[in-house]
Design a protein that fits this description.
Strand order of the largest sheet: 13-12-28-27-26-14-15
Number of strands: 38
Helix content: 25-40%
Number of helices: 29
Oligomer: single chain
Structural class: alpha/beta
Bound molecules: iron/sulfur cluster, FE2/S2 (inorganic) cluster
Distance between the termini: 48 Å
Strand content: 15-25%
Largest sheet: 7 strands, mixed
Radius of gyration: 29 Å
Length: about 950
């Protein structure tokens, strides 16, 4: 359990500067130069009253409550805006400042509703606290004068209320939105008494640019901006620190409870990944965990056409074990396997892969990372020697040039995007390489220096062209290459060929050669150049090639091994990194060690007391093919909805239908469960103990804030299945699983729950050489010794636009929804995104007679679906875009089985399609009255 209120030192910490010493109320204190008097006082143990100051924001100096007296200086300066100086003597409690503070507070209170006892913030209101701290006993001005008591509430946001009658115009909300979140949605309108907080130009929060991150709510010292859950449920009384279960940023939260009820999630200030910030999903979208759709009792059925039958746990577990054993007896161990989940904890993933290898007797275990970041694992291992990103998130604050490739951080990784935007506002230059004009290209106070709007499927040609410029214009870091790398000459000869020049590829890529040259020079000449990328890099037929292409580029420019540089995958799901680390690929045991390595296998065989197969098992797409051939018959799907998230859904569902036994462990009956014979209820992240590993290799603790609603822990259910199959697996607690992981995995050797309790979080590798973990990798040398340049010839995808399918479809996600939407669709986040839309360029739309809101048919060579069109020039002509959050749209019905040559990661980002008008949107109800109910639903 942690403190509900975290200490607030008033102004941000200053780092790295020389130390100065001063005295506050007779107490000596030493602080870095540049520290405010307020912070120095707080560090000395003296709390100075404050309202407009908080240590998350730059000092503003508006409330005048923090006045102090300083020996030798005239007047009463504001301690939040006054820098401490060496030898300074500060007095914070003189009669003079006490009188001034009381006057200030009197003015505030005279225009503040006196409803403290019934106010939602009672007990958590800084105005209330400060009135007490300054000893306010009376308000001489009375309450009869002009005031704001009747100001109208804005309740447009589903998660928080804005009650301007309680506003003290401290501007903390405005500054939080600007400085922390970087959305600039709020302003202070008017002057003097008339000044007020306004979202946008007098709009409601919902109609403004607000992205509902909640930073303003957290910053507000009064009940003006307040979570609806606190208003409805009351102030929480205890908290548990845990980790968000949505994206790969891995934000830490204090889950605040009242009794056993979760009231709110407050981003944890000490969270290594988020440092007190969050997005709408992590802070507000936790309602799915208690949604009535949750399945809490195990269910079985003989055939998928039978109705489900609720059973006791023992019967469900026994059924799984009996039927898996039966398949194994008749068809061999190669006929059964499992898919692990990147949404589950490291400990759960570890026991699932152990169950497959030790109890099933095969290596047929794969992970949903197969369909997202498997090329990252391959590409970075080949070049750097480690299947993981090189930096911690903090590192971006040192980057001078940031290259964002195939990722949309403001929607997919919002808290990291805020960090990145802070750095760009400080002056870092930005290069965006993406077919779509993502928000980062142009947003308040951010303008990309270069947007290379390439044709989908031409990533490798573009990165090669950039590297071509770097090499042929002599921009390489020769000393870094000579000291740290191998294979440069061969690569340089390849990349210098004319066929890789920006001019040679510009027609193919659609990117003007001059833009490529300018971007290449900018990146190569930066003191620190950092690359961040996502699924727009990996989900291609050359996903692994592209990862190696970026690694080559970074090495050529010496941009590896220190702060502000690196090659960094922004991982999609909360535990993609962890699920890969835990050995859930069919060819690798934990720590990315090949199953064919006798010495590695021996370690596991000795500990597990069994013999392991030296040959890799089946990958997910191979499992589907083998199922259709009749050689793969039993699948345990742990927390993944493959029937919605994998490509060519028709093929996936045919494969699932062909299997004798499909076991699904999940929170809800998802699309995959429709093909299942056994359903095992899962636990939400709020019910779990364990760890997640985020995109920066940070191992974060997940702590249960409530008991599993189904009565069982997921890791325990897996162990019971293994045991029932004749391979006893038993742990008392997930900490024992982590101890085992540390025993068999060198990069986790120093990790334990005890260490995590002390450190908060640890970035692997964590071993004897790096007992506190490794924020930045490859500092002195690469994990593989020398960094390896790998030639990366561009090979066009076989997926081409044709006369029949003339457009290219690419896919992505939206801020308010998450993956297949199983969680976010069961929260109030649907207020922002009720359906998947097809973004189409105005010219392509006009050619097809399509207007905004029309229902259109989206067809590829493998399938077709219908959805509504959104006319948008974010895409170039010839390219359409959609999200994949709603099963009813089934965007993956049209994606093909093309995949990355090295890893089989599907080529989600390039599908040749045709779009045709299916049904016009009804813009005039009277004209289309005969269209009935459906027509009304389609009205804009
Ligand atoms: S809404 Fe809250 S944070 Fe914003 S100005 Fe008013 S009191 Fe300050
Ligand atoms: S919720 Fe976030 S984006 Fe919206 S106004 Fe507040 S700080 Fe800005
Ligand atoms: S950025 Fe990601 S990890 Fe952080 S709160 Fe949002 S969804 Fe959760
Ligand atoms: S806290 Fe210093 S002026 Fe408001």
């Amino acid at each position: 359990m942690s403190l509900l209120k975290e200490p607030d030192f008033g102004t941000p910490a200053k780092e790295g500067a020389a130390t100065i010493s001063l005295e506050v109320d007779g107490l000596p204190v030493s602080v870095p130069e540049g520290t405010s008097v307020m912070r120095a006082a707080a560090l000395a143990g003296v709390d100075i009253p404050k309202l407009c100051a908080t240590d998350r924001l730059d000092a503003f100096g508006s409330c005048r409550l923090c006045l102090v007296e300083i020996d030798g200086r005239r007047g009463t300066p504001a301690s939040c805006t006054t820098p401490a100086a060496d030898g300074m003597v500060v007095r914070t409690q003189t009669p003079k400042v006490a009188r001034l503070r009381e006057n200030v507070m009197e003015l505030y209170i005279s225009d503040h509703p006196l409803d403290c006892l019934t106010c939602g913030a009672n007990g958590d209101c800084e105005l209330q606290d400060m009135a007490g701290a300054v000893g306010l006993r009376q308000v001489r001005y009375g309450y009869e004068g002009e005031n704001h008591f009747d100001a109208i509430k804005d309740q447009s946001n589903p998660y928080f209320d804005f009650d301007p009658s309680k506003c003290i115009v401290c501007s903390r909300c405005v500054r939080a939105c600007d400085e922390i979140q970087g959305t600039f949605a709020l302003t202070i309108e008017g002057r003097g008494f008339a000044s007020k907080v306004s979202p946008g130009a007098g709009e409601s929060f919902m109609d403004s640019e607000c992205v509902s991150c909640g930073a303003c709510v957290q910053a507000c010292p009064t009940a003006t901006l307040q979570e609806r859950s606190v208003i409805e449920l009351g102030m929480p009384s205890r908290s548990v620190i845990t980790t968000c279960a949505y994206c790969g940023v891995g934000c830490s939260f204090k889950a605040e409870l009242r009794g056993d009820e979760l009231v709110r999630m407050v981003p944890h200030k000490d969270g290594g990944a988020n440092e007190g910030h969050s997005c709408v999903k992590g802070r507000f979208a936790f309602g799915y965990a208690t949604h009535p759709d949750r399945v809490l009792r195990p269910m079985v059925r003989e055939k998928i056409t039978d109705p489900w039958r609720e059973v006791e746990w023992e019967e469900a577990i026994g059924t799984v074990a009996r039927r898996m054993l039966e398949i194994r007896r008749l068809h061999g161990a190669g006929a059964i396997g499992a898919i692990t989940s990147s949404r589950c904890t490291n400990e759960e993933v570890y026991v699932v892969q152990k169950m497959v290898r030790a109890a099933f007797g095969s290596n047929n275990v794969d992970t949903c990372a197969r369909v997202c970041h498997s090329p990252t694992g391959y590409g970075l291992k080949q070049t750097f020697g480690e299947s993981a990103g090189t930096q911690d998130f903090r590192s971006v604050a040192q980057a001078d040039v940031i290259m964002v490739i195939g990722v949309n951080p403001t929607d997919g990784h919002p808290v990291f995007a805020s960090r990145m935007k802070q750095r760009i506002r400080q002056g870092a230059r930005l290069i965006v390489i993406d077919p779509r004009r993502i928000d980062l290209v142009r947003s308040p106070h951010i303008t990309a220096d270069h947007h290379l709007q390439l044709n989908p499927g031409t990533n490798v040609a573009v990165v090669n062209a950039i590297a071509h410029v770097v090499v042929t214009e002599g921009l390489v870091d020769e000393s870094f290459i000579a000291a740290r790398c191998e294979g440069f000459d061969e690569w340089a000869e390849f990349i210098s060929r004319e066929e890789n020049s920006p001019e040679a590829v510009q027609q193919l890529t659609g990117v003007p050669a001059a833009e490529v040259r300018a971007a290449a020079r900018l990146y190569a000449q930066a003191s620190n150049g950092a690359i961040y990328y996502g699924l727009g890099v990996t989900e291609h037929s050359q996903g692994s090639t592209m990862v190696m292409g970026m690694a080559n580029l970074a090495m050529a420019c010496g941009n590896i091994g220190r702060d502000g540089v690196g090659v960094n995958p922004l991982r999609g799901q909360n535990n993609v990194q962890g699920s890969c680390d835990m050995g859930s690929f069919p060819h690798e045991l934990s720590g990315y060690r090949h199953v064919s390595d006798d010495a590695v296998r021996q370690v596991f065989e000795n500990l597990w007391g069994t013999t392991l197969l030296p040959e890799p098992g089946l990958r997910i797409p191979n499992m589907f093919d083998a199922a259709l051939e009749g050689t793969f018959r039993g699948l345990f799907v742990h927390g993944e909805d493959i029937a919605q998230s994998d490509p060519n859904v028709g093929h996936v569902t045919a494969a699932l239908s062909a299997m004798e036994l499909v076991v699904v462990q999940d929170l809800f009956i998802n699309e995959t469960a429709k093909f299942a014979h056994v359903f095992l209820p899962g636990a939400s992240f709020l019910e779990k103990d364990g760890t997640f590993t985020n995109a920066e290799r940070r191992i974060n603790r997940v702590r249960a804030v409530m008991k599993p609603k189904s009565g069982r822990h997921e890791w325990d259910i897996v162990c019971q299945v293994a045991t029932a199959m004749g391979y006893p697996m038993h742990y008392d607690h997930p900490r024992q699983i982590m101890d085992e992981i540390a025993t068999v995995t060198p990069t986790f050797a120093g990790v334990s729950f005890e260490r995590l309790e002390q450190a908060g979080s640890i970035q692997w590798p964590c071993d004897a050489d790096a007992p506190d973990g490794t924020p930045i990798m490859h500092v002195e040398s690469f994990t593989r010794g020398k960094g390896r340049f790998v030639p990366t010839p561009f090979v066009p995808t076989e997926e081409r636009s044709t006369r029949r399918f003339p457009l290219i479809l690419t896919t992505g996600r939206i801020l308010s929804q998450y993956n297949v939407g199983a969680q976010t669709r069961r929260t109030a986040n649907i207020a922002w995104h009720q359906e998947d839309l097809l973004e189409i360029h105005p010219h392509d739309a006009e050619d097809r007679g399509i207007t905004d809101g029309d229902e259109v048919t989206l067809a590829s060579r493998v399938g077709q679906t219908k959805l509504r069109a959104k006319i948008s020039d974010r895409m170039p002509t010839g390219v359409v875009y959609t999200t994949f959050h709603y099963p009813v749209t089934g965007a993956n019905v049209v994606t093909t089985e093309n995949s990355d040559w090295a890893t089989n990661c599907p080529e989600y980002k390039v599908t040749a399609v045709q779009v045709a008008l299916a049904r016009p949107a009804v813009r005039d109800r009277t004209a289309h009255a005969q269209d009935g109910v459906l027509a009304v639903e389609l009205v804009d």
